[in-house]
Amino acid sequence: MDPQQPGPPPQQQQQPGPYSQPGQYPPPPPHAAPYPEQWGAPPPHPQQWGAPAPYPVQYAYREPRIIPAPPGTPFHRLARTPKHAWWRPIVGTLLLGAFVLFLTTGVVVAWTIVHRVVAGPFPTPSGSDIFPSDTENLAVTLVMLGILTPCVGLAAWVVQRRPFWSVASVLNKIRWRWLLLCCVPALGYLALSYAMGLLVDAIFPPDDAIGNDGGSWIGFGAFVVPALVILFLVPFQSAAEEFIFRGWLIQAVGAYGPDNPNGRARWLRTVFRSPWPGIVIGGAAFVSAHGYTGWAMADVFLFAITVGWLTVRTGGLEAGIALHALNNLLAFMLPAATGQLSGWDEQGGAPWTLLVSDIPCLAFYAFAITWLARRQQVARVS
Known about the structure:
single chain, mainly alpha, 10 helices
């Protein structure tokens, strides 16, 4: 550039003038691109900012059908969910009774048909037996009881509209690791029970001892079939009884405990909020479902009360299932090994020494389970 030629005049810096109100916004240019349809409705023009925008669409909230108990709920009150109504435990109990009647009858009919097809016709045995074989009679009875476990969960799910496995524990499931751990104190209970029985019988010889008369080993060939039946079916039978008497009944009674302990008849509210009404009612129903009399009935009731308390104390049925299953396995295996399986359904009385010898054994099991539950930090509430 020639230095002699003048350059462009310097630009003068504009000074800000006084503030003035802005005028109306100009209308959009006619050549503006259309608003894409996939974006929804175009935003309002600034001239329309004074008009309120349309309210967003409201979606209706649909309450879930199955609602668990609130957090912090103990085992005996797991049926006290937001869906609870006074009639639900009653209708659920009636439905459970219908399941028992229908399914047990169906098992007997189906078993009889299969037996006739496979083995041919058979004469009707005398008494309460259905089939001529003692092992077969035991097997069909254990199956009739074992299939009731899912019926309890189904009644809770359909009628009370709570989780299917909420009858099992506060975590709405069977805690398998805890169940296996409970088998260790249960084995200790059996060993202590045997030792206490020998000690008490030595001090106070019973006049009407219950059980077998000694018997003798029948041999492996005759023992293996009933042993397999007992080993595979007794745990299901024991678990079903725990689900009904320590699960459903305790929770059905506990559902009537009021949420607020204050108010009219405060002592009655406090009683029904505790687990003891359900434990006692469940224990009485458990005794009535068996054929024991006298001191044997008292011993069975003590067993039911202890296991019911442990169920609430540990937040689940696992401790009761472990003790019930191992005790029944031993009770069935001994007659099967000595050829006395024909009397598997014979219950009745027992000497008072049975109750005396069983008290320290149940105390040991209760102490061992509570100590183990603290060590394992087992959940007691939901």
